[in-house]
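This protein record is not my work; I was only asked to verify it. The record follows directly below this note.
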Amino acid sequence: MRLRNLLQPGWLGLTALVIVFAAACFALLAPWQFHRHEARKTQNDEITASRTAPPEPWRPGIKEWRLVTATGEFLPQHEVIARLRTVQGEPAYEVTVPFRLTDGRIVLVDRGFLRPEQSRVPSYAAPPAGQVQLLGRQRADETDSENRDAFTDESGKRQAWKVDSRMVARSTGVTIEPGYLQLELRTPGVLGPLPLPELDAGPYFSYALQWIAFGAMAILGWLYFTWRELLPGGTLSTERPRRRSVAEMVAEEEASERALNPS
């Protein structure tokens, strides 16, 4: 009879909720945090390696954060400014410009950041004309979940939401190689050089363990309360003690008094 109590709609709903929550913890949330931890570790390893490796000429498929050199000329007519950026905890713009290499291929170059002036793009120096040699770090394209294209602001400048060579190519009609170069300090055309990310592991590993613990606690709690419900008198039990009437309680009390005081 008690097993049937566990088939009541309220208990079945609770069971389904526990199963869904635990499955999300174990199959989605914890693996997601583990993946973020591994991605951060990979990034840290690549940045650490790039600090000691000598620069090498740019080539397709080079690893992210690798220090590279590139020779060619800027194409300022195809400039795109990335808006709503944050650099060192403060708002910023980033100026990106296609750069034609000596072999004819074109890569996107991030010249660095600018601080907004009255919420607008400030004035800044144009990139140098003619052939120059750049020193920068290879970066992977950012992704816009809404896949938005660049737009032209009131001053006639193109602005975009991410630093993405694919978006710049669509907006300008120029064929651009994947990824972009982030210019280093004292490189021709650099504005405010972008800092490297801090080499910390982040909280992702501990978050993953927390989600595993939450899923385990949900299952253990469900097992405990299931065991409680299988005992006599559980909250779902239909076998309830019969409630005594007032007359029965009075009669019991009188019987108890007579037993204590026989006359």
User: Anything to note?
Assistant: The mean pLDDT is 88. DSSP finds five helices and nine strands in the chain. Helices lie at 2-5, 9-52, 165-172, 204-230, 246-260. The first helix runs from residue 2 to 5.
